[in-house]
Amino acid sequence: MQIGLLCALIPLLPLLGFVINGVGFRRVPTGLVGGIATLAVLASFLIVVSLFMSFPAEGGPQIVPLFDWISVGDLHIPFSFQIDQLSLLMLLVVTGVGTLIHLYSIGYMHHDEGFGKFMAFLNLFIFFMLLLVMGANYVIMFIGWEGVGLCSYLLIGFWNKNVSYNNAARKAFVMNRIGDLGFLLGIFTIINTFGTVEYVDVFKQATSLPMGDTTVLVIALLLFVGAMGKSAQVPLYTWLPDAMAGPTPVSALIHAATMVTAGIYMVVRSNVLYTLAPQALEVVGIIAIITALLAASIGLLQNDIKKVLAYSTVSQLGYMFLGLSATAYTAGMFHVITHAFFKALLFLGAGSVIHAMSNEQDIRKMGGLRKALPVTFITFAIGTWAISGLPPFAGFFSKDEILAHVFEHSKVLWALGVLGSGLTSFYMFRLLFLTFFGEFRGTAEQKHHLHESPATMTIPLIILAILSAVGGALNLPGGGWLSHFLEPIFEGSRQVNPEAFAESTIEHSTEYVLMAVSAGVALLALIAAYVMYISRKAVPASDEADRSMPEQVIYNKYYVDELYEAAIVRPIRSMGDTFYSFGEFAVDGLVNGVAWLVKQSSAQLRRLQSGSIGFYVFAMVLSIVLIFALRFFIRF
Amino acid sequence: MFPIVLLSVFAVVLLFLGFLKSRSVLLPATLLFLVAALVANFLDWNKTYLYFNSMLRTDNLSMVFTAIVLLSSFLVVALSGSFEDDEAAQPAEYYAIILFSLVGAIMMIGYENLVMLFVGVEILSVAMYILTGSDKRNLRSNEAALKYFLMGAFATGIMLFGMALLYGASGSFTLAGIASYASHAQQGLSLIFYVGLLMLLVGLLFKVSAAPFHFWTPDVYDGAPTIFTAYMSTVVKTAGFAALLHLLAASFTYVYSFWGIILAVVTAITLIAGNVTAVYQNSFKRMMAYSSISHAGYLLIGLAALSAQSRQAIVFYSLAYSIATISAFGVLMLVTRQRGMQTLSSNPLSNESFDAFNGLAKQNPLLGLAMATSMLSLAGIPLTAGFWGKFYMFSTAVERGQIWLLVVAVLMSAVGIYYYFRVIIAMYFRDGATEPIRISPVFRYVLVAAIILTIGLGVAPGLLQGLF
Amino acid sequence: MTEFLAFFKTLTPTGYLFLLLTALTVISAMGVVTARNPIYSVLALIATFFCLSGHYILLNAQFLAAVNIIVYAGAIMVLFLFTIMFLNLRREDEEAKTNLTKIASVIVGGTLMVMLIMIFRAKSSQLPVGSTVGFEPNTGMVENLGHLLYGSYILPFELASVLFLIAMVGAVMLGKREAGDRHF
């Protein structure tokens, strides 16, 4: 079949699903809703697979123009898709994981009265995500970017009867707007500099620029601000943990596997620009390591199963950016993929637990669930093993590749990275042990109710667990398939800075030592967690219990929310108040004055409309006289 | 050419269909005829023909304008709902007159000879006089028709005088002949030529209700039955602007320095008169009349600048404006009818006021959405077709360097936002005792189509640009 | 004055006829507007049309002259008279116009007239006078007109019928008696 049609179909199918379920909300039978939504995404996935199969290994990007979209003066922005190695990979992840999560949602959400609406929103999200990934220029990416933000907002606040959920949704929305502003400014700067927004043209022009060009630095930084918002980096990360208010499949799909990695996708997409601006990469690296450590340390003491996963997501996103900052774009993408597998798995597993526990999310009230939920337990354990970076599962390979590149780049960052990896291992196993081992600590009623989830929920878990286990094979150390596959994407970067892409200088022995170190640290953390939570059977204290000072600080997430409240929200509000009382006078006066003027002249003009034909004709003749006078008798 | 022949025949057929007992066949038949004409219109696509000794021209531009006119009439006819609730109505005659009047409109779009322009203008105008007065028992309708007729006759006289003078000066009725005369502008042309040009312009400006020749518009639009107001404010305006554009671009580019400033001043006055007066209106219908004057002003920007982008800008603007206007009038018709049944007051003034829309969106989300979309489009808010229309118009002014005109236009669109948003505020934020309004399926399709077109063109304006 | 007389001396009989007809046309046209009684108004209009037909004859357009008399002076004016008599407009409706509007109208209208005269008389608006050598005296005859109308102007000529059809349909539609309307 024609490639253009296929490409158009990929996003159109989920959109169709959205239209059917959205328009027919409460009319489409519940049994069909899930099927339609899932099939739409599955069909897209199959198309992507067929495209992927037929894609030439060394091929350049294929641009699929759909229609002329905007043309203003010299600026032409066509609506076109770009199919290349990078977008294909992202497409596979988005539609593949998306299909599984849709399937899972059928089991998880079908009791909800807004089930149809929920599935429609999920479809809409997939549509926008596909636009974001497939677009051949920054403007289409921006539309997708805004669209996924909107869907995220709608889905976080899906149970909109709860006020705090709505607040969480709003927080996510506002924080993302700050990032979007940066992104938008970046796009404008690109238009101004290159006169086009098409990736191909921009990057071609960019390769001829010198290293360290200031404009490119500005663009790279502005784009990174956008990425910070969407991918929850310090300081714009606090919305992501709050976003866990949404239904669990949403957390898995949007806030773990796909949307939050959009920032990484964007940086990888613009890799030429970032390679040209080493300072920007340094900024990225610093922010990334701060995010990774900060979020990991907060995760140590969280007691809400989803919050722990949320902070771990923030931390993992930090790792991805860390990889990018060392120009290890492939490693970053590799981690995006493996993270999508195991984090989706963990969230869905958490959802399964929550489902079984009748919506209980506090791990202090769980424990010993491995007997009641065997499938969930095994898959969750695999996910935990993978995220902790222990061999031989996926996380080990991707994280190690990032760390190896970082080691080459800066030893300090590497040490901090390894530390973070240890923290990750600790809190993840803490979560695992507290949830599935030991004695059941919930109420008797909950205990009675415990059950394994239905097949629609466990099948995605099993598939994702398999992927998390073997996903590392995509890119084994020493030149795996993925790095070879993605090579054409970084052609431009290689051209502008060959050194950054030179063969690794570290010897294999060093590399093995590095691997051993990070795996060892993770293993140590695992043992520590085992000792604490299984041997000693420690259970985290309740909220009111006394804590030591540092513990207190971490438990309260470093008081970042409070800090923002005190440092940003309140001053702005009081500033707003001041401006309001001052502006009320000046601005209102001005506005009202203008409005009054318009109204008065309107009242006067209205009088001309007397309704008398005589007057109308008179006015016409008078105007003709004036025009003649103007043209024939008055010289000017 | 094909639509002219088809429409003339179809209109006669419709008159005969009027003999049938059942009225229900009329609406589908008319819609079918319009679709047939629309299809026939595109038979000449990508070809340029001159028909009948260079009387009529078909090229892509004229076909696009014809398509806009036919599409507008399709939407209007679909909204008319066969006049099923009105015993005194004579739908067969109405539809026949609409089809006949389209012949005039197409002549105005494709003329190559001033005689064709004149006959076209007359066909369209006479049809409008009749439709304005078609509500025979309504005094306001009668008054409006009479006013329109008298003023229109006056304007026609001026226009005809202008044509005669142009003929006298250039010795030709054809646009090409006039253009070849005007091309000697360097050596000096007879003043008679310029007088003729001005008078012809005045006549045509009257038809598109540009200030200061606009005084008939509010009274006529207000008095005419709403459905025909929708027709007048879209089809007549589009045809009028197509005629003006073709006239100026084909014959008078050589003397731009003579008429450019006049048109720019007229544009500014039209913008101010339309927008500022609309602020004070309490009747929605009357507001729409002033708004149509103001949109004539925006369209005139493209003519006054007459740059390379003008054609595209005028095509896009007329399409965006027509769709938004028709759906707004469609919603108004439903609301007025509903209010008339509810309050049992036959006073149409209160039923057409802004207050009639209070709380509309809560009970009738579709109507609210349709109205809101068209108001946003008319106000020129981004992501609607109206935004790009204004954008293209303004960029033509920039191209010509008419910055002062641009400033006036931008200020006036800010004023426009005020009165367009009054409706939206009334619909969404006021409380009103409106009950759900029964919407017939055809109505629903038209409104949904209008919403999709408006948003679609707003999101992807390039779709239309690819056409020609 | 001598200039004026000299001008008259140069005139041919056609010129005298033209001046006479023009004066009559203007006077009767003013009569149409100023007459208080509608009947007089219509009669003045008929006179105007006759004068115009005279002009057509002077311009060698005999067919047009005949048609003008038949259609306008004959058919349309009779219709006007009938209508006016039916409507019983004998009592003189009081004019709502004040003196101010009248004066304003006269001033504006007069200015327009003066302007047009000045423009048309200006040197730069003179057109080259066509030569009478190749003039075809039969131009205005039915045969030539027919060739033209059914030749190059066939399309507007045919489409004018659409205009008349509209007018007919409209007249029937608006004039059709409905239940409850009064009979004349």
Automatic annotation (TrEMBL), chain A:
Question: What's the short name of a Pfam family annotated to this entry?
Answer: Proton_antipo_M
Keywords of this entry: Membrane, Transmembrane, Transmembrane helix
Q: Which residues form the NADH:quinone oxidoreductase/Mrp antiporter transmembrane domain?
A: 137-424
Cellular component per GO? endomembrane system; membrane
Q: Does the keyword Translocase apply?
A: no
Q: Which stretches are transmembrane?
A: 33-52, 87-106, 118-136, 142-160, 181-197, 209-229, 250-268, 280-301, 308-330, 336-354, 375-394, 414-437, 458-476, 512-533, 613-634
Lineage: superkingdom: Bacteria
BP-aspect Gene Ontology terms: ATP synthesis coupled electron transport; electron transport coupled proton transport
Using the record's annotation, list all stretches that form the NADH-Ubiquinone oxidoreductase (complex I) chain 5 N-terminal domain.
69-119
Taking the first listed entry, what is the main subcellular location of this protein, grouped into a coarse class?
A: membrane
Localization recorded for this chain is: Endomembrane system; Membrane
Membrane among keywords: yes
* A molecular-function term among this protein's GO annotations: NADH dehydrogenase activity
Q: Would you tell me the protein name for this molecule? A: NADH dehydrogenase subunit L
Upper classification of the source organism reads: Bacteria, Pseudomonadati, Bacteroidota, Cytophagia, Cytophagales
TrEMBL record, chain B:
Give compartment(s): Cell membrane; Endomembrane system; Membrane
Q: Which UniProt keywords apply?
A: Cell membrane, Membrane, NAD, Quinone, Translocase, Transmembrane, Transmembrane helix, Transport
UniProt-recorded Gene Ontology molecular function terms: NADH dehydrogenase (quinone) (non-electrogenic) activity; NADH dehydrogenase (ubiquinone) activity; quinone binding
What is an example of a Pfam family matching this protein?
Answer: Proton_antipo_M
Enzyme class, spelled out: translocase
GO terms under cellular component: endomembrane system; plasma membrane
**GO BP, one example?**
ATP synthesis coupled electron transport
Q: How does it sit in the membrane?
A: Multi-pass membrane protein
What are the transmembrane regions? 61-80, 92-109, 115-133, 145-168, 188-206, 227-250, 256-280, 314-335, 366-389, 401-421, 442-464
Which top-level group of life is the source organism from? Bacteria
Classify the main location.
membrane
| Catalysed conversion reaction | a quinone + NADH + 5 H(+)(in) = a quinol + NAD(+) + 4 H(+)(out)
Ubl conjugation is among the record's keywords: no
Q: What is its EC number?
A: 7.1.1.-
Which segments constitute the NADH:quinone oxidoreductase/Mrp antiporter transmembrane domain?
113-413
Which family would the database say this protein is a member of?
Answer: Belongs to the complex I subunit 2 family.
Q: Do you know which PANTHER family this protein is assigned to?
A: NADH DEHYDROGENASE
Its annotated function is as follows:
NDH-1 shuttles electrons from NADH, via FMN and iron-sulfur (Fe-S) centers, to quinones in the respiratory chain. The immediate electron acceptor for the enzyme in this species is believed to be a menaquinone. Couples the redox reaction to proton translocation (for every two electrons transferred, four hydrogen ions are translocated across the cytoplasmic membrane), and thus conserves the redox energy in a proton gradient.
Subunit arrangement? NDH-1 is composed of 14 different subunits. Subunits NuoA, H, J, K, L, M, N constitute the membrane sector of the complex.
Task: Tell me the protein's name.
Answer: NADH-quinone oxidoreductase subunit N
Species of provenance: Spirosoma oryzae
The major lineage groups are: Bacteria, Pseudomonadati, Bacteroidota, Cytophagia, Cytophagales
Automatic annotation (TrEMBL), chain C:
Q: Output a single Gene Ontology CC term carried by this record.
A: plasma membrane
Q: What is its EC number?
A: 7.1.1.-
| Keyword Transmembrane helix appears in the UniProt entry | yes
Q: State the Gene3D superfamilies in the record.
A: NADH-ubiquinone/plastoquinone oxidoreductase chain 6, subunit NuoJ
Localization, per the record, is: Cell membrane
The question of whether Transmembrane is a record keyword is answered with yes
Q: Where are the membrane-spanning stretches?
A: 15-33, 40-59, 65-87, 99-120, 153-174
Supply the InterPro entries for this chain.
NADH_UbQ/plastoQ_OxRdtase_su6 (IPR001457), Nuo/plastoQ_OxRdtase_6_NuoJ (IPR042106)
Q: What class of enzyme is it?
A: translocase
The protein's annotated catalytic reaction(s) are: a quinone + NADH + 5 H(+)(in) = a quinol + NAD(+) + 4 H(+)(out)
Please give, as recorded in its UniProt entry, the membrane topology of this protein: Multi-pass membrane protein
Main subcellular localization, coarse class?
A: membrane
GO MF annotations in UniProt:
NADH dehydrogenase (ubiquinone) activity; quinone binding
Q: Output the Pfam families linked to this UniProt entry.
A: Oxidored_q3 (PF00499)
Origin superkingdom: Bacteria
Sorted keywords for this record are: Cell membrane, Membrane, NAD, Quinone, Transmembrane, Transmembrane helix
- Protein task: NDH-1 shuttles electrons from NADH, via FMN and iron-sulfur (Fe-S) centers, to quinones in the respiratory chain. Couples the redox reaction to proton translocation (for every two electrons transferred, four hydrogen ions are translocated across the cytoplasmic membrane), and thus conserves the redox energy in a proton gradient.
Give the record's family classification. Answer: Belongs to the complex I subunit 6 family.
Could you tell me what this protein is called?
NADH-quinone oxidoreductase subunit J
Native organism is: Spirosoma oryzae
Question: Which classification does the entry list for the species?
Answer: Bacteria, Pseudomonadati, Bacteroidota, Cytophagia, Cytophagales
